[in-house]
Design brief:
The complex is a heterodimer.
Chain A lengths: L5 E9 L2 E4 L2 E5 L5 H12 L11 H16 L11 E7 L4 H11 L5 H4 L6 H10 L5 E5 L5 H13 L5 E10 L2 E10 L5 E2 L2 H5 L3
Parallel strand pairs in A: 4-5, 4-6
Antiparallel strand pairs in A: 1-2, 1-7, 1-8, 2-3, 6-7
Helix pairs in contact in A: 1-2, 2-5
Chain B lengths: L1 H16 L25 H15 L9 H4 L3 H14 L2
The chains are: A alpha+beta, B mainly alpha.
Chain lengths: ~200, ~90
């Protein structure tokens, strides 16, 4: 018999606002996405020099995960290998790809090159929160809730993970959106279903 | 004096090239280690320092084994630049 899992927390980032569990957690009137993400980072009042070096997609996912996981402790339990991540987006790492391509004409930038893969955002989140469990990143035209729900349920049902961050992190030029959810075997929240996931978009 | 000016320029260029937003050029000592216990730079930063040498001083670091010695500190970088600019004016 398959277990039922819970969405225990949800964060969404779009239109210069960060919403945590339906409540406005941060708002800024910065004129572009780069300055918005920087102001959201500064609002956290933490020292993390690596943030400045990340590409836009990684900054977006990193900020979203920071709000999501700092909301309640215990996501990774005592075993970091039981906490993982399943994310998706539409534009892969195209934002970083284009910026890197602009440097190729002169001297290619190694610092930009390392972000020319979309799954690097998961690496940045994993390093920050010491998550060592299974992860996967999918490119989809739009958020395929049925697919993501099935994939995450498989990881949880087979005890590959005990908890999982899942959702959408997409950024290209000035268009961006992140919706991340904590899905856990233990905890309080709404049932983890594709229908419930879609209500957060 | 030329050496001092070169080291001050390098500090500004390092902060800009490596996007060290929490560090001011004046915070970097001439002999401070740039990696490990110093500025805490990583392997990607090392590649960016190679790009910096090429972009600003037209110097290509051809022998990777020289890297740790050349990029040990701002002074070692400045000495390497001075030597190679004299060799290839």
């Amino acid at each position: 018999m398959e277990e039922k899992f819970k969405i225990t927390s949800v964060v969404s980032v779009c239109n210069n606002r960060i919403w945590l569990n339906g409540k406005l957690a941060f708002e800024s009137k910065e004129p572009d996405v780069a300055r918005f993400l920087l102001s959201a980072f500064q609002n956290l009042k933490i020292s993390y020099p690596k943030f400045y070096k990340m590409d836009g997609l990684s900054k977006l996912g990193w900020i979203a995960a920071e709000y999501l996981l700092n909301d309640k402790p215990g996501f990774a339990f005592n075993d970091n290998f039981s906490a993982g991540m399943v994310l998706a987006n539409k534009n892969a790492s195209l934002d970083a790809d284009l910026k890197y391509y602009q440097t190729v004409a002169s001297i290619p930038s190694p610092a930009l090159f390392v972000y020319t893969l979309p799954n690097i955002v998961m690496g940045e989140i994993s390093i920050r929160h010491k998550l060592k469990g299974e992860n996967a990143f999918f490119i989809q035209e739009e958020f395929d809730a049925d697919f993501i729900a099935q994939y995450v349920q498989g990881l949880l049902n087979n005890n590959i993970l005990q908890s999982c961050i899942c959702g959408w992190v997409d950024l290209l030029n000035e268009d961006y959106k992140a919706v991340l959810m904590r899905v856990e075997k233990n905890g309080e929240g709404v049932e983890f279903t594709s229908q419930n996931m879609l209500t957060y978009f | 004096m030329v050496m001092e000016k070169l080291m001050e320029d390098l500090k500004t260029q390092i902060v800009e090239q490596l996007n060290l937003q929490d560090v001011k050029p004046g915070d970097i000592g001439n002999d401070d280690p740039l990696f490990n216990e110093g500025l805490g730079l990583d392997s990607i930063d090392a590649l960016e320092l190679i790009v910096l040498l090429q972009q600003h001083y037209n110097i290509k670091l051809l022998n990777a084994e020289e890297g740790p010695k050349v990029f040990y500190s701002v002074r070692s970088m400045a000495e390497y630049i001075t030597t190679h600019q004299k060799a290839n004016p």
